[in-house]
Specification:
By secondary structure, the chain is of the alpha+beta class. The protein has a domain at about 25-170: PAS domain (Beta-Lactamase, 2-Layer Sandwich). The protein is about 25% helix and about 25% strand. The protein is built from five helices and ten strands; from the N terminus they run H-H-H-E-E-E-H-E-E-E-H-E-E-E-E. A hairpin with a 7-residue loop joins strand 4 (about 130-135) and strand 5. Helix 2 packs antiparallel against helix 5 (about 165-180). The model is unreliable at about 1-10 and about 230-235 (pLDDT under 50).
């Protein structure tokens, strides 16, 4: 086996889970940088204009896996904008473009982001949340995942740092690794939803509740598990 094939297609479930973990942890590492910058910028009585200084941190994260990224404020955090998101995504030209939504609670088009899993998870205390796949009708109309982390200041929850990843990009990144397992292999999030797969039996978006002959192995400490027919122990 060549050195390149050994890297792209490791032979044991432990190696595959670790390799997938590396890919996903790289996205979360970017969100950790966004979180640190947000805490640094948002002092006493923050306003929405303060978040413009996040853009030099956000823009370099776009591209590759990440199609959208930003900071979503906890309701009431900003004195001039009780509901606010500093969110940027790729345009058709590849340049960052800001997403603008109706933040007026009195409007019929009001975008209440607090009920989405990617916001509710971090707010409830989860260090890493992986939501989806779902069709992102509000932003891109793409089948997407959203990864998010809580942002705390002085122990108080002040918002969420999050990134969108198109499922098609994620599958392109992890499929060579998953094919290192003989037989069917797929990834599920914490709620059992399949996020990438090498088998038509378990497509992205389907729910896995267990099946004879299949077992799950966590991908590091992330809210993501590898499911496969055989899971040999690491030596």
């Amino acid at each position: 086996m060549s050195e390149q094939r050994a890297l792209l297609a490791p032979g044991t479930a432990a190696e595959v889970a670790a390799a997938v973990g590396d890919i996903v942890e790289n996205v979360f590492a970017g969100l950790h940088r966004v979180r640190a910058a947000a805490v640094h910028l948002l002092g006493a009585a923050p306003v929405s204009a303060d978040l413009a200084a996040l853009r030099p941190v956000l823009f370099p994260l776009l591209g590759g896996l990440i199609s959208g990224v930003g900071f979503i404020a906890a309701p009431g955090l900003l004195s001039d904008a009780p509901w606010y998101l500093e969110w940027w995504q790729e345009s058709a030209s590849g340049e960052p473009v800001r997403l603008v939504r109706d933040m007026d609670p009195a409007s019929s088009a009001f975008y209440d982001y607090t009920h989405w899993d990617w916001f509710a998870g971090p707010r409830s205390g989860a260090e890493h949340t992986l939501a989806g796949p779902y069709v992102d009708f509000l932003c891109t109309d793409e089948y997407s995942l959203t990864l998010s982390v809580p942002v705390l200041s002085g122990g108080e929850f002040i918002g969420v740092a999050a990134a969108d990843v198109f499922v098609r990009r994620f599958e392109t990144a992890v499929s060579p690794v998953l094919r290192g397992i003989e037989g069917p292999a797929f990834l599920v999030n914490a709620s059992g939803r399949v996020v990438a797969s090498t088998t038509a039996r378990w497509l992205a978006g389907s729910i896995f509740r267990g099946a004879p002959g299949l077992a799950a192995r966590p991908c590091r400490t992330l809210p993501l598990s590898l499911v496969a027919a055989q899971l040999p122990h690491a030596p």
